[in-house]
Amino acid sequence: MDPTQLSAANSSARLQAALAVGTRADPGDVGALVARCAVEPDFFVRDMLTWALTRLPAAVVVPKLLGELRSERPQARSQALHTLSKIGDRAVWPSITRALLHDADEEVARSAWRAAVVLVPEDERGALAVDLAAQLGRGDRAVRLSLSRALVALGDVAEDALRTGLASLDPAVRAHARATRKLLRDPDAGFDLGVDEAKRVVALGPERAGGTAC
Fold this sequence. Notes:
By secondary structure, the chain is mostly helical. It has 13 helices and no strands. The longest helix has 15 residues, at 171-185.
């Protein structure tokens, strides 16, 4: 299929085009795929574009994606981060900058968190946990859940990183920290339940709340 079909008016046609390009796996299509990632409005098509890129040689794809991390278009940054996490080349870790982890666009930040926990070297996991925990309380429920999941993915190093949040003067930060700690200790625990419980402890104090703060 002609790669120009990646910009067809119909989303189903674009999905089929991305599938065909990925199946063909011609390195010459990298530019078209990366460019489309930056503007594609349909989630499922974007996911297929990422799949197509993972089918191509990383040596060709990764430099293009790293260039997208500097794009002024948030979706370009977000989708490049997502694709880099799927490729899993840890050599790109230095490009997952603090600016991306704290990006003002929440979709970019969420993609950066997910990519970071996949690509971070073992000896930098603790520092990453601290950096992520500094954003506790950010955004709506979806954003907070993404941040909690990223911290949980880092494992035990997140415990220490949560201490500052647990002692924060901001009730929203404390509640988010408690909910994250609950997920860290019991990954099957419900996130909403954790937030509700944490808010109750903040409001009543640990003694009146039945000791649930521990």
